[in-house]
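Record pair follows.
FIRST:
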Amino acid sequence: MDSNNNAIFQEIEKLQQKVEKTTLPPELKDKLLDEITRLKRISQSVGYTQEFEQVSRYADWAVNLPWATRSQDVLDLNAAKKIFDKNHYGLESIKTRILEYLSVLKLNSQMETNKGEIKINKFMRAPILCFIGLVGTGKTTIAYSIAEVMGRKIERIPFGGLGDPLYLRGQSRVHPDSEPGQVVKALRRAGTKNPVILLDEIDRVVEESRATIMGVLVELLDPEQNAAFTDHFLDYPFDLSEVLFIATANNTGNISTAVMDRLEPMMMPSYTDEEKIKIGMDYILPKVMEEAGLPKGCLEIALDVWPKIVRPLGYDSGIRTLERTINGICRKIAKMIVEKGNQKYIITTQNMEEFLPTW
């Protein structure tokens, strides 16, 4: 019996040390320590094991959230331009908008006051961008490029088919099997309090729950409210004001007016055939060849073949069909190399039917 009591005491002590060593908001730390004190009082009762599991799980989430951990923003405009141009063709207005924001951050990062003191990392509220466009126009990939440009972690929260607001806000610990919402989970995965959080396809939530989900979105995105966002599981406000939220949507018809009022909508235009040819030649083909393990210089596509690659079956607003077609070409070349050995393959209008999909 004594050894059992000793094991229980060690469990509680280990949990208490974990909380005491972690930098937490004072009120939350006091709340956790009170819970641990209560565990000591009930350590001999029948329900102790269940109570310990609940308190331990709650403490684990609390101590592993980035209450004061930030990543250092990369504010090099020249490097940012190179990354954008490497990853994306065109989209000049969107690139300019992000570079403007980085410029404001740079000017505010170190500002001399009248007393000659330096204010480090003065906070500048981020714009809440919403990229709106048809499928395949690059809404999600531009968000990942923005995170790369700024040197921030990025976490994605998908909204397609979302029907329960508790998915975002979490469930109270009074319920069995309760857990935090996706926002808190994203912060823990990122490990910083200033990541980029991508709210993907916010227009595709379930109709029956649209009003309540849009209400949670307002709280997430409103500068006056998100500085104290409260997850039901955590039951303590977390400051989301330094998070860079980016939303995507196919259209605005299913997004509430209150949410749209807090977003900066940016249209992602459909690509012309000429733009797709440029993207296919300079961006997609080199990337797909590398992913397929094709040697450099083993594949050449004649210029007059590209219109057929871009539009093999008809019009597509984005580049997904283009990517699939180029992937198919590279797979065929890979098979030919394996069967016949390394050599150069040139696709022309005379032999293109061997490589392009036909139905």
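SECOND:
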Amino acid sequence: MAGSTHTRITGIGTAKSEAAGPLPAHWAVREVMDIRQAAEYLGISPDSLYKYASENFIPAFKLGNRWRFKRSLLESWMERQSSIGPGKTPEKSVKPKQKKPVGRAR
């Protein structure tokens, strides 16, 4: 339908109207997501996201013993990561593991 609007939940008690097509059900997520929701939002596996969160590579916090992800922080992190471009270093680079020296052949 031309001119129709759709409402997207953007946080607790707030909504945003959009003139675009309907959003998938999984995109109407809360501001704070658990590891499964955040992994689906980012398009990666929960195992990968857990690793990135525990290495402080991606913005996250723990609530009790469970990881939580704030959507606005993930969006700004993705924006910063995508604007880095070739030849520039990220804010926090992950150093490659040092290889052990190879022993002499006999």
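COMMENT: The longest helix spans residues 71-82.
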